[in-house]
Amino acid sequence: MNTHEVALTRGEGRSIWLLGDLYTFKVTGEALSVTELTAFPQNGPPPHIHQREDESKGTLHTYKNTGSTPGRMILLLTPGGFERLWEELGEPATQLTTPPPVDAGVIEKLIALAPRYHLQIPPPPR
């Protein structure tokens, strides 16, 4: 059996900007995805439900950085592959400190791509 060890430190890995947050891919693959996320103040994704991944699978959830400084988290997704959605939506990070302006069409694109990634994004409550 082949084994491959991966040990990436903070800031290492391929990075993209998405919805004003920085996503740095640490491990990608079919079994597991590990992503370092830097969430900037007042940012977070729309409420959503994963139908495939064991990252709150089947549960409506979101997050928001309510602080005044960037926060970090490690996202573990099993199975892997969901990170490809982020890659389709995001833009390559040429610098890692200041978020670029958010593309006005990214939410519409997210909603259009969601079914391909077994993701539900319910409409906002009225």
Briefly, what is this?
The protein has 126 residues and is of the alpha+beta class.
What does this structure look like?
This protein has a 5-stranded antiparallel beta sheet with strand order 5-3-2-1-6, with helices on one face. The relative contact order is 0.24. It is 12% helix and 25% strand. By secondary structure, it is an alpha+beta fold. It has a single domain, classed as Jelly Rolls, CATH 2.60.120.10. The protein contains 2 helices and 7 strands; from the N terminus they run βββββαβαβ. The protein has helices at 83-89, 106-113, and strands at 14-18, 21-27, 33-39, 49-50, 71-77, 91-92, 119-120.
Write the layout of secondary structure elements.
Layout: E1 14-18, E2 21-27, E3 33-39, E4 49-50, E5 71-77, H1 83-89, E6 91-92, H2 106-113, E7 119-120
Antiparallel strand pairs: 1-2, 1-6, 2-3, 3-5, 4-7
